[in-house]
Amino acid sequence: MAKKALPASTERVYKILVIGDGLVGKTSFVERYVNNRFIATYKATLGVDFSQKKLQRGDEGVLKLQLWDIMGQEEARTMTRVYYRGAAGCLVMFDLTQRQSFVSVKKWKEDLDSKVRWKDKKLPTLLVGNKSDVVHRCVTKAELEECCKELDFIGWISTSVKDNRNVAEAVSQLVDHVMAMDTGYEEEEESSQGQVLEITSSNKRKSFSDSSKVGSCCFRSPVPSEQNW
Ligand code: GDP
Ligand code: MG
What we know:
Elements (H helix, E strand, L loop, with lengths): L11 E8 L6 H10 L14 E7 L5 E8 L11 H4 L2 E9 L3 H5 L1 H11 L9 E6 L10 H11 L3 E4 L8 H17 L2 H4 L40
Parallel strand pairs: 1-3, 1-4, 4-5, 5-6
Antiparallel strand pairs: 2-3
This protein binds guanosine-5'-diphosphate and magnesium ion (MG).
Guanosine-5'-diphosphate binds next to helix 1.
């Protein structure tokens, strides 16, 4: 039986993590989402753990999202449990034009899953390929889909923080899943909210982290009809 959604007046605060290799655009993403700014030479504001944004979602009331940016601690590709503690969702970000940042996704996701749970489950986590304004791609759609299946992402999305493309959508899609898990409502009612991301299924299992491709880009630019992802 479907559980009831929380009353609209309930204030919900969700801690959302943004992790991934350095230079993929995490700080820019948070700045764009929270303050709608893009500064090409943006430097992380030291001493601030998270940026907060209030979201009004229909009759579901106001949500407070706390976006946690790892701020320069990317080198280790692993974070402390303390940093992950209390998180309800996560964006694992990579740069569509930098193969190594995609290869690192596996380490980030495995680190996350080994250190934190929410509602006794893995955190809902969205794979975010940033810098879609650059035509060059170092990863194929098929690899993204494979990666989602292998590492248990709720789905993937390509964004351009620079052009403000899919930034709010990425957060919104993640929040849909977080809320479905929190209230147990949307999921069981099969509302469209939890189904925004469709992952094309493929039975072929191959590793997306082919080390022969590490550090370089082995794909030609996509054919024109596919450039809009
Ligand atoms: P972080 O290390 O992951 O926090 O990455 P930053 O947010 O500091 O961004 C690294 C660099 O990538 C900066 O020069 C940004 O201006 C640039 N950048 C971020 N997002 C985009 C994007 O969507 N497109 C392009 N072309 N550059 C971006
Ligand atoms: Mg940063």
